[in-house]
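sorry for the late reply, my laptop died twice this morning and i had to redo everyting from scratch. anyway the thing you sent over, i finally got around to it. pasting the sequence first so we're on the same page, its 96 residues, then the predicted structure underneath. double check i copied it right bc i was rushing
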Amino acid sequence: MAKRRDARGTLRDYKEEYRKFQSSAKQKAERASRNSARRSALRKGLVHKGDNQDVHHTNGVMNNSRTRVLPASVNRGIHEKSRLKGSKRGSRKRKR
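ok and here's the structure:
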């Protein structure tokens, strides 16, 4: 198996991690919900195959009733709240 070192120097098997994560029941349900929203937008004529449009779930909720169509470049550029300035999550400030 191809194990690689992460930023901390720990050996990790990324292939195994992806396999385990994507096969979990929660991830399968979320993927099915995203696919369902895309198919419903296709039926309504809001998106077309290969048009570089994404179905965006507003407020990050996996509820297919609250979706809108955005260009892929815009949708994938939306900042996550955890990455915004002032967020407590993910801060790597050193204690002195």
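The chain is about 35% helix and 15% strand.
thats about all i looked at so far, will dig more tmrw
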